[in-house]
Amino acid sequence: MTLIGRTRERGVETLGLDAPHRRNALSAALVAELAGALADAGGDAAVRAVVLTHTGTTFSAGADLRDPPAPEALVGLLRQIVELPKPVVARVTGHVRAGGLGLLTACDIAVASHAATFAFTEVRIGVAPAVISLPVVPRTDPRALARYYLTGERLDAAEAVRVGLLTAAGDDVDETLAPVLDGLRRAAPEALAETKRLLTARVLETFDQDAADLTALSARLFSSAAAHEGMTAFLERRDPEWVV
């Protein structure tokens, strides 16, 4: 079963997360297939830029609780997006939760419709947004991030733009995206690659410094009793035992 759709138009490779029955959750299989598709696009001289989008009403619900990727695999995917020698643009028309926000912020540009919503829900299931902090923390407002990390509250698209999760939002995501793609098509490929390298240097420093510690933290928390209770409660559609 193919989990990533691929289309191309005028040098723009569109990769679509295509597991809507699982809300495009980041399973081990989806992460591996997306990594392969990104590698193909990154090595293809005919590709000027990559658009990362989705089918269904959810861009990504975060880690697949039934078949989660290894933390190292998720780190590798996020770094691959940041390091890809082509700009990666997120196109979002649905909801983004938890690990899906790691994908979103790893992209160089992120555009969403006003219908999209966003939330760091990790604390509500007994874990922390550990690995996804690698791209999230360098690219978002620290005071706002403290609130949304600690509470799990939902953000609308306008707030997501304000705090740095998104580049832009509009009623028609493709209308909002059109000038972005036009600009990328008009840019020299080598200049794009070098300019992206300038922009991602600080994010990659965070990967170099913190990836090992955050990977270990993620593994420890996901194997904890609190995570077991939180995930069980989520799957059973009830409050976990710590809710007061």
UniProtKB/TrEMBL annotation:
It holds the Pfam family ECH_1. CDD domains: crotonase-like (cd06558). InterPro entries: ClpP/crotonase-like_dom_sf, Enoyl-CoA_hyd/isom_CS, Enoyl-CoA_hydra/iso, Enoyl-CoA_hydra_C, Enoyl-CoA_Hydratase/Isomerase. PROSITE patterns: ENOYL_COA_HYDRATASE. Belongs to the enoyl-CoA hydratase/isomerase family. This is Enoyl-CoA hydratase family protein. It comes from Streptomyces viridosporus T7A. The lineage of its organism: Bacteria, Bacillati, Actinomycetota, Actinomycetes, Kitasatosporales.
